[in-house]
Amino acid sequence: MRLEITATGVILLILGAVFGIAIGMMFGHRFLTSMGMATGPIKIYDAFGRQLVLEKVPHRVVSLSPTITETLFALGLGDKVVGVDKYSNYPPEVVKLVEEGKIKIIGSYWEPDFEKIVECNPDLVIADISPHGKYLEKFDELGLNVLFVHGGAASSIEDIISDILTIAKTFGVEDKGEELVANIREKVNMIREKVANATKVKVLILLGPPAWGLWSTGAGTFIDNLVTLAGGTNVFAKYHGWIQTSYEEILAQDPEVIIITVMGTDVNTEELLMEVINTPLNATKAAEKGRIYILTGVANDILCRPGPRVIEALEMLGQIIHPEIFGETQREDVSSLKAALVKEIAESGVFPHVAKEGVESKVSFIYNC
């Protein structure tokens, strides 16, 4: 039997061959890159806009922040991590690897130990432009390859997404990065739709207990962006960046919800709530309705770390700000003034929040909020 090939057939065969080669090269390159066998230099632009050129996929990586560590492990790159800051505690595997001596502690997030970083013999260090940007010359002096991400300087979820995708590209795991990002965007859109017609709630975020100096967040920060996405209004959005405020300013804004992080420290939440209600914050609508919240443990971490768990933070904020939409939070690491009042009344019937009122008034207060 004789095979007849028309001109059209020849063109289709040629096109098929060309596209087949192109697709093969594309996926082949991704595969080789992910296996550490990239056929050419890897060129990455970091958060500073600097171009970093790597001859091969990094195999020994030092992370200078908990957020970076979480991102590396979320992308399946934990086996490449040889050093982390002392606050990196998630996933639990990190703590285990540190205890086993497979990952070294290289100092704190604020003050990395350069000698320990060098001892790790990394082919890449991933840093946060704030506060590590000031060490750029030192990194260069030590001959270290450093990739800067937005980290704590992230102004929105989009900056967080950018960090995830940048790290994914550096290691040739773009598919995993895109999967992670798609999940984040999907859940953000779901929450945005649910609060689209909700009344905006005035929210104050305090970074640390009041005794630390009333530090808060203005516009241009990822926490401000999360409050907005969760259906709240940041009472200090008129300012930019991380700010220090005063009781006078807070009372002038009269927040309806106050959320206090403990910044990774160990605190007694009941004692902290007592401390809070014995400050001028007790004169706010938030205190009046029992809507003062203390975030500890994981709750604190997911709000303060602009990384892969940002959706958990957004869902938690949704429950705190709009319980009528998302339901009351049931998290054990979120303590509220209302819950403390209920507990105190159940145990002793005495609580100093409303010193001149009797137990009946307090019970009425709680159940009519």
How many DSSP helices?
A: 17
Structural class: alpha/beta
Largest sheet, order of strands side by side?
5-4-3-6-7
Number of domains: 2
Low-confidence stretches: 1-5, 9-38, 353-369
Q: Biggest β-sheet: count, sense, barrel?
A: 5 strands, parallel
At CATH level 2, the architecture of the largest domain is: 3-Layer(aba) Sandwich
Beta-strand percent range = 5-15%
**Amount of helix:** 40-55%
Q: Might you state the CATH topology name of the largest domain? A: Rossmann fold
Shape: globular
Number of strands: 14
The CATH superfamily of the largest domain bears the name Nitrogenase molybdenum iron protein domain
* N-to-C CA distance: 88 Å
**Cα-atom radius of gyration:** 25 Å
Quaternary structure type: single chain
**Any idea of the CATH class of the largest domain?**
Alpha Beta
